[in-house]
Amino acid sequence: MTISHDPTLYLLTAATMLALSGLPGLFFRSPASGQRAAAFTAVIASLLGVFAIITLLEGTPGADWQIDWPLPFGPAIFSVDQLSTIFLLPLFLVTGCVSVYSLAYWPAREQPGARKLTLFLGLFAAAMVVVVLARSSVLFLMAWEVMALAAYFLLTTDMQSSEIQRASTVYLITTHTGTMALLVMFSLLRGATGTFAFPPAHTLSQAVPFATIIIVAALLGFGSKAGLMPLHFWLPGAHANAPSHVSAMMSGLMLKMGVYGILRTLSFFEALPVWLGWLLLLLGVWSAVNGIALATGQRDLKRLLAYSSIENIGIVFIGIGLALIGIQTRSPYLVVCGFSGAFIHIINHALFKSLLFMGSGVLIHGTGSREIDRMGGLARRMPLTSTLFLIGALAICGLPPLNGFVGELFLYIGAIMDGINSPLPLAALVAPILALVGGLAVITFVKLYGIIFLGSPRSDSASLCHEAPALMTGPMVVLAGSCLIAGMAPSLLVRLVTPVVESYGNVAKSVMQQVTSQVPVLPLTIANCMLIILGLGIGALYLWRLRKLPLAFGSTWVCGYPAPTPRMQYTGTSFSESMVNLLGSLVAPYRRKPAMDGVILPQKARFIYEVSETVLDQVLTPIFLWIGSAFSYIRRLQHGQLHIYMLYIFITLFVLMLWSH
Amino acid sequence: MTVFADQLLVLVMLINLVMLGSSRLIFSIRAVAVQGVILGILPGLIHPFSYHLAGITIGIILAKGVIIPYLISNAVRKAHIRREVEPFLGYVPTLLLGAVFTALAFVFAEKLPLAPEHRDLLFVPASIATLLIGFLLLTTRRKAISQVIGYLVMENGIFVFGLLLTEAMPVMVEAGALLDLLVGIFVMGIVINHISQEFSSIDTSRLRTLKEE
Amino acid sequence: MTDIIIHCLVALLIPPLLLGVIAKTKAAFAGRVGAPYLQPYYDLYKLLRKGSVFSETTTWVFRAGPIVTLAATLIAALLVPLGRHASPISFSGDMILFAYLFGLSRFFTTIAALDTGSSFEGMGAAREVTFSCLTEPTLFFALITLARMSKSLNLSTILTHPSPTAWLADGASMLLLAAALFITLLAENSRIPFDDPNTHLELTMIHEVMVLDHSGPAFGIILYGAALKLFVLGAVFINVALPIATGNALADWGIFIVAMLGLAMTIGVVESVMARLRLVRIPQLLVGATILSAFAMLLVLR
Fold first, then answer.
1. Residues A339-360: what's their mean pLDDT?
2. CA B109 to CA B111: how far, in whole Å?
3. Whether C47 contacts chain A with CB within 8 A
4. pLDDT of A248-288, one tens digit each?
């Protein structure tokens, strides 16, 4: 193999370029030119990365790179395999788009902290590339920490509000607790294999010491990064408060690193415990249902999107769970459909969620608010953004003819085939659950799109909004275009994941073909085309009729009331209220009604209705507060009197001496 | 004929769910009556004809389908009970719980060591499901009268199980069971009447105030 | 080939007649003569020649709503088998596309309603998405059950599989399925007891209130789309509930059309003898329907 045509080399170069992209900006006098240079470098790096992946997909394998470094943990090993491509492709695509977007979203001329933001944005992306390429534990952990810390610094770009401070502290604590679990896992792995290099796929027997603990620690460490329930509590706050393009990368890409970690760890073992598939399936179902249920009730645009990320991660884990169950029960259709669905959904979610977060950036830029109920009527003021946002919303609901449907289609088919073939088809119950989740997603995104973009503006800032500059809409067009193309021609997605499923799931080519023949890839393209042609045809007929007939314009019919105001429109909260009430304890909305009885002329009163974060606010915060107050007793030991400190040391020494004898 | 027996048993289980979902007291009572009539028809479908069987059928239809429901609705009318059921738990959660219980009944029935000729029939799961749902009605409903309905449903569940043994079951035992129930309902009726006279309410959750502090 | 042409003709031409039959049945119950059977066709013709009034708040979404809804429903009509014949477009896994096409049409109907900014239409849109979210699991339980019976992922196969023998063998679960599908049919098409399609009082409704602002040809498209949706879901129900096949193609088509008209009459009877449910009771009935279809699946597993 000649070194000149090695995908690994390309990828490493791209990672280096990304990591260094923010560096020149630190030395330039004007921060704006530094930002432009960084964006240019990032786009070049992304193109290089995409080129490397295409090379890989065409069958050129990447070489393994071993770099001996002066650290006592063995060499740093870089390698790229099929599994990596699933994560790298969206990574480069989204990173390129985000860095262009940031030029207009966070212009260095106007906004403070742009130098820092640009520097860490590049580092963040580069660290994620290295996470996916690393094949030795120490390298992996180092990249993991750089990623986590870069995300923290990106999150704290604007440290003014107390909300950001709280969210970033919660994030920092969570990510380090997660890393702690990973340290445990990698140490045990080192104990099992005797080296810091990752063991090759399917070589670790389940009988190695602490195999169960390794898997559980991986689930804890990586699961908290992925935002799997109940470890999701850091996610809504962090995603909502970060700058929007950072949220796009955190939600579209960083969550997937957690999924990658779990998949990579599981691939070491030659056999997995029986309960694991069911556990992942249950966690996935929980995350999907509860995530979208919480999303439905949100009023904050970005918190809503964050909860919907939890839902989508849940869908990915449903797929992984199905596949693992399939491996246990020797049902190839579950393996193929589960893995294909999960992988396709990973790619899709990165595309449409980044699109939606970028769209939310445009909205925040325009209106200065994240409150859905204060927006409205923006479709007239930003027609392009509204159309792109609509594409993202349709895709995330999994509706044809967009890409979100393809991933879910695989999961449905896997579940229904289980319903046909298995004697006790518990996995088939996934299909109605996914249908429920899909229905809830429609509620959530109809609310999001309808309340924000349609109707008339509910506040002055919304009515003064304007279309975003091309630097912001351009990247969104790229992402929306990819959603549309992937939805119209799902065979592209299927071709992308087929080799991964074959190698990762150990599926023979013939089996793969036999199962995927049950999934309507080509017919879907035809049906989608027919749908669009029919739509255009009916639309043309309709326009023809409109042209021929008299037209009149007036105000909306509100049942005879002569002077409707925008405040009389249905709000997002009222839109989702009936469903939130039905979901009951899953969401547990917080209501505080003012006491009104007995008052003839009521005072000014305040009504509060919000859907809060249950795990964080009702479980973790009280526990930590309790621990904090418990530790306050220990604080009495620290009083500043030096001679008593000496006494502590003496007592400690004395106890140690006694103990050692 | 056993095919029709299965169909009827499905109907019995559906009536269970209807009772969980219905909000009107009188409607629940009628549903129990219908369930009773179906239970009366069932023995005739699975056992060969005999006078004993005919007697049982008529007795059951009369007792479960006519007399007991009549007595309960009389009590409702006399005690001036409001027509709503007033559950502790919402209708949708109880319905879902009922569905889960029914599914569990099927799983449980699979595990029971049954005679092979009973294995393919729905009798055992239906009886367990009815029993469990009777229990659910008993625990989730606020009013004493709807608790009586819960008892009736539970009794129906036991009866379905007994159907498999009708041939072996002496008339006396059955009559005794029915009599038991009848007495129970009378007692309940009297108690309810007294409660409603004394406290002007038959909400059992208020009985808690009677306990010693 | 003839079957495909007949399929398209039946699917395109019969739907408004169903509305006519329902109206006539209701009139008969009320002791009126009622509008002629073909009244919906006259209405459509009239609407297509009428001018439109647009609210100044609306955008292209408002105009696209009815169009996308109709296009999606038309594709669904091509996926469902009619009169014991395979459908024109039929492939493995088409049942999921079938279910999601209704999701697409719902998305566009509701955002078109929200585009007007009227709180009444917002209310209707909220109800529509909430209630149909609860009908989706029912549909999927039913589809899994039917798929298991016929061992296929193909809508044409699984819907032409039920037969009188299947009814004899799995009578209980077929009955449950039919009941669940009938409830879904009524709920999805906003019929009594879920919604009253005849009242034009804005406060009480789901579907009608969402389309208050549409006029002229757009309203015609909506009316036709609603009739087509009733037809498509009705055909699913008929395939399960009345699986009669004679072997003669034309006779089967005849039976199918008669059965659809019978279904329309049944809906008319239901609408005449029942009252609309209180809004808070609707989710209960929908969850009940889900349990019915889940129960049907449970019985098939044994």
1. 95
2. 5
3. no
4. 999 999 999 999 999 999 999 888 888 999 999 999 999 99
- End-to-end CA, chain A: 63
- What residue of B is the nearest CA neighbor of A585? B93
CA distance A400 to A404: 8
Measuring CA to CA, which residue among A501, A495, A252 is closest to residue A356?
A: A252
| Non-local CB neighbours of A92 within 8 Å, separated by 6+ positions | A14, A45, A46, A47, A49, A50, A53
Chain C nearest-CA distance from A184, in A, is 42
Rounded Cα gap, residues A36 and A24, in angstroms: 10
CA–CA separation, A324 and A339 (whole Å)? 9
Give the closest residue to A355 by CA, choosing from A247, A466, A440.
Answer: A247
Structure tokens at B2: 């056993």
Q: How confident is residue A91, by pLDDT bands cut at 50, 70 and 90? A: very high
Contact at CB, B7 and C171, closer than 8 angstroms = yes
Q: Is the peptide bond before A401 cis (omega within 30 degrees of 0)?
A: yes
Among residues A411, A199, A215, the alpha carbon closest in space to that of A323 is found at: A411
**Do the Cβ atoms of A288 and A314 come closer than 8 Å?**
yes
Cα-based torsion angle of the residue sequence C144, C147, C148, C150 in order, rounded to the nearest 10 degrees = 160
**Contact state of C176 with B10 under an 8 Å Cβ cutoff:** yes
Contact A380/C115, CB-based, under 8 Å?
no
Q: Helices A522-548 and C216-241: crossing angle, nearest 10°?
A: 140
What distances in angstroms separate CA C197 from CA C15, C26, C276, C280, one per listed residue? 16, 12, 10, 18
Q: Are strands A551-554 and A76-78 parallel, antiparallel or unpaired?
A: unpaired
A134 — phi, psi (to 5°)?
-65, 140
CB nearest to C171's CB, from B3, B23, B106: B3
Q: For residue A235, what are the contacts with CB-CB under 8 A and spacing of at least 6?
A: A227, A255, A306, A309, A310
Summarised one tens digit per residue, pLDDT across range C4-47 is 999 999 999 999 999 999 999 999 999 999 899 999 999 999 99
Q: Does B93 touch chain A (CB under 8 A)?
A: yes
Query: Is the CB of C283 less than 8 angstroms away from the CB of B92?
Result: yes
What's chain B's length in residues? 213
Q: Could you tell me if C221 lies within 8 Å of chain A, comparing CB atoms?
A: yes
Q: Does A553 sit within 8 Å of C56, measured CB to CB? A: yes
What lies within 8 Å, CB to CB, of A200 at 6+ separation is: none
**CA C297, CA A419: separation in Å to the nearest integer?**
9
Rounded-to-integer distance, Cα C183 and Cα C190, Å: 11
State the Cα–Cα distance between residues A20 and A32, nearest whole angstrom. 17
- What are the angstrom distances between the C-alpha of B25 and each of B31, B72, B75, B141? 10, 10, 12, 11
User: Between B7, B92, B102, which is nearest C295 by CB?
Assistant: B102
Tokens coding A561 = 């009331």
Residue C261 tokens, joined: 């008209």
Cα–Cα dist A146/A19, whole Å: 11
φ/ψ of A609, rounded to 5, equals -145, 115
Is A48 within 8 Å of A129 (Cβ atoms)? Answer: no
The label of the residue with tokens 């559980």 reads A216
ipTM for the whole complex: 0.95
Cβ contacts below 8 Å, chain A against chain B, sum to 3
Considering only the beta carbons, identify the residue of C95, C122, C153 that sits closest to A570: C122
| Structural element, H or E, at residue A246 | helix A244-249
The CA distance from A101 to A478, in Å, is 11
| Residues composing chain A | 661
Instruction: Determine what percent of chain A falls in helix, strand and coil, rounding each to the nearest 5.
Output: 75, 5, 25
Residue of B nearest to C298 (CA): B103
Assigned token pair, C239:
């395939």
Taking a C-beta distance cutoff of 8 angstroms, is the pair C215, A545 a contact?
A: no
B100 inside 8 A of chain A by CB: no
